[in-house]
Amino acid sequence: MRWSNLFTPTLRDAPADAEAASHALLVKGGFIRQLHAGHYSMLPLGWKVHQKVAAIVREEINAIGGQEFLLPTMHPAAVWKQSGRWDTMGEIMFRLTDRRENDLALGITHEEIFATVAAELSSYKELPQIWYHIQTKFRDEARPKSGLLRVREFHMKDSYSFDIDWDGLDRSFEQHRVAYERIFERLGLPAFGVQASSGAMGGNTSTEFMVPCPAGEDDVIRCPNCDYAANIEKATSRLAPIEDDAPPAEPERFPTPGIRTIAALADAGAPADRQIKTMVMIADGEVVLALLRGDHQLNTQKFIDATGTIVLRPATPEEAQANLGALPGSLGAVGVTDLRIIADEALRGRTNMTTGANDDDWHYRGVDIERDITVTRWADLREVTAGEACLNCGTALETIRCVEIGHIFKLGTVFAETFGAMVSDSEGKQRPIVMGSYGIGIGRNMATIAETYHDEQGLKWPVSVAPYEAVVTVLKLDEETMAAAEELYRGLRARGVDVLLDDRDARAGVKFADAELIGIPYRLTVGPRSLADGEVELTMRANGDGKRLAVEVAVDTVADAVIAQR
Known about the structure:
single chain, BirA Bifunctional Protein, domain 2, Rossmann fold, 5-stranded mixed β-sheet, 16 helices, 31 strands
């Protein structure tokens, strides 16, 4: 490609709303343009990078036996209602009605659709199978931001494994885990796997692949001493033991005028770790109490996972008062029998605790959890914080801000049972297929690479995904210089290098700045002075190093370096 023919509308300044480096640089470099919130056009440079990322993903999934499909992105509501996820997906699903008043959805994921196809499998002899596609997905994000990191329309690779039993699923899951590690290594991303919640996608065992990134939206709890790592929505830790004295025969009611907070009650003589925090939640329209230790915070995703809630919100003060008789600050669960009570495991067995008495300005002390509170269910509800002890080795945990670039989880048989994906086993009995689901966002990985590889001058793409692997920059458009540049350009193309010839009639500084902005890994600069010595200048974008090369070895030097890094 000749730069004079290339559509690459670089900008002097980044958009005012660009908070993430990748957003700013992909817009400045002419890779993407926003159509409206969460929807981006891929310009030629952006689409080249996107396609190279997708090619690496495709190659590695094909290598483990993946077979590529292309499935519709518009789905009838019936399949989502059949799985029960028409409701559980909530507001994140785009929904529409056609001219015949049929309810439809834009695909947020494709478990349902692949399961309907898998219903055509009939025998265990046809298993295992790995099916995938790279398709447009839609998610109505409440706050799309950071360019390609959080969008409403995007390309994702979904793959699905189909096995006769759970042992087979374990093998398929491990195949994908290893394939994902290879993908991220080839993309140049320092990814690591963490325990995670499957959320609305369902399933049980779940691993997210994370990359440390200040623009990310996920907090990961990680042990610096062992291999423990988990999303904040799944993380747990080892708590220091707390001794409890024998409680009185029954809770003691005492006045607490004006006390409305955990801190104020602590100042009045009840340490936070000896308080019961009572949170009134509205879970799918039902009033539910969540109990935690006073010094702990509720992780809402853990509550959702524990209760199967679809729509969750805190109760208003008025709703709390209507159900418990008091305003926040004096709420408790002692004697409550008409509401579901979900208690955090850190409260199990605790005695001599203090909590609200459901009467404004009054509390109870001497509360024995198991004696005085009717707990419906115990669950891990609290949010882990940095500095708490690792569950495995006791080392202080750390918190890292990350961006999620891949997610794999074990679905089990729920979709097979729902959509009739049954096969006969070796004894002729009908069994539901055991499924796994594995996703990678193509655009998000592209943006994460940009977040990882850039400097003040612009992007620094790894060779594996760079829009062009090399650029031949011509300093003067005279006949001799252009002839030498053309010869280098042809030679690099003959060696299979994806090369750009900068033949524009522009100042050298503009050409160098553009090449740095769009992040081309290798630049061969051809000018009359160096040619007079039989040389050209090679500059490496990764580190800025430059050196002169004899013209006759320039092609092989660049081509060999490029091929070694693909």
